[in-house]
Amino acid sequence: MPEYDRSGPDEPVTLENWMRPPHNVVAYQHIRELIPTAAIPRGEGPVLDLAHDPAAVPPPAERAAELAAGLAGRTHTDALVVLHRGRVVHEQYDHGMRQDTRHLCMSVSKSITATAVGSVIASGAMSPGDDVCAIMPEFRGTGLEGAAVRHLLDMRTGTREDITTLELQRAYYSTCLWAPPARFPEAPGEDEDSRGHLWRLTQVRPHGGHFEYRSTLTCVLAMLAERATGLRLPELISRHLWQGLGAEHDAEITVDRNGNALADIGICCTARDLARLGEVLRRDGLRPGGARVVPEGWVADTLTPDGDQAGAFAPHGTPYLTVPGAYYRNQWWVAAPRVAGRDGVYLALGIHGQLLFVHEAAEVVIAKFSSWPEPWIDELARASVAGCLAIAEALTGSL
């Protein structure tokens, strides 16, 4: 694997180059200076304490810290926070990051968005069984006609991803304000905003079939939640998740020229606040002291697959998560479902190495921000998941 100079780019970071190495190392920590963002306020409640207390962690913590440092060194890591039973076991920052630096989450945003939508579902404003067109009739006549919210949550609609080439992706990034304005002959014309392409989705197979990873489905899920609640996505995530979480800092999310938030890849937050989300989920949606943040049953539902879910995942999911029996549910990658008690293992994953890892039996949460030189590198993805599992094992002995 080639090595990249991390001392800093020789030319300024711009909207043209910010996603390429070495510029991405700096850019992922300074998104608001490149792209318009909307705040996801933390509110005024108390911060969930993650104080390091040597007396509160077990003797294997030293070995876990060694493994964590090794993982960080191998995988272009910008920030790494390891929690055991809610206490910091290991924490490190590189490439200019600090505890209060927000970093782009990429597709970890999907899992954050879906977790906030879980509260919308619990409120009764929408249901997994609802027809997409019953919530937004504008989708009638598109490839989403007949799809249910559950199909979006699990990425099992029968729609085809329509951003299939580099040129089309570049055109889409332009409408998201993630790239300079540009036109390409292959593109269907410049969309008004980042949601324009959703009306062109076509159906190529029955809904509810095999899993296929498609960012468009998170964007549709966000639109449905906005329609059901009357809230724009940044405020929805703030009210239904970030304020109750005990986050220390506001998060933010990129928005297009019409103010539409990029639900699938646009959230930025600190590593500690991402770890706090994992800790609340590890506690089944509860903060220490018993205050509920994530609805009762949401985590259990995520960790309880439908009968055919693992089989539906295998054809397209295994390149991302090479663990036997893995599946995708509620926009989380599940490495191990709950079998007895609280023993699930699940992750949020994003390109260029963003990760949130929750291991229930080990009582471990790991938040990791990175700046890989390529969007997806199989070797680094496997090393990251294996490294997290090794850290969890070190903190509990034999699992």
What does this structure look like?
This protein has one domain: DD-peptidase/beta-lactamase superfamily (Beta-lactamase), CATH 3.40.710.10. The chain is built from 12 helices and 11 strands. The strands form 2 sheets. The chain has a 7-stranded antiparallel beta sheet, sandwiched between helices. Strands 1-5-6-4 form a 4-stranded antiparallel beta sheet. A hairpin with a 2-residue loop joins strand 2 and strand 3.
> What are the segments in which pLDDT stays under 50 over at least 5 consecutive residues?
1-7
CATH architectural arrangement: 3-Layer(aba) Sandwich
Largest sheet: 7 strands, antiparallel
- Largest beta sheet: what is the strand line-up? 3-2-11-10-9-8-7
The total count of helices amounts to 12
Radius of gyration: 20 Å
Mean pLDDT: 93
CATH-assigned fold name? Beta-lactamase
N→C terminal distance = 32 Å
Tell me the number of structural domains: 1
CATH superfamily: DD-peptidase/beta-lactamase superfamily
The count of strands amounts to 11
- The share of residues in helices is 25-40%
> What string gives the helices and strands in order?
HEHEEEHHHHHHEEHHHEEEEEH
The SS-based structural class is alpha+beta
Please indicate the percent range of residues in DSSP E strands (runs of 2 or more).
5-15%
Basic shape: globular
Q: Under the CATH scheme, which class?
A: Alpha Beta
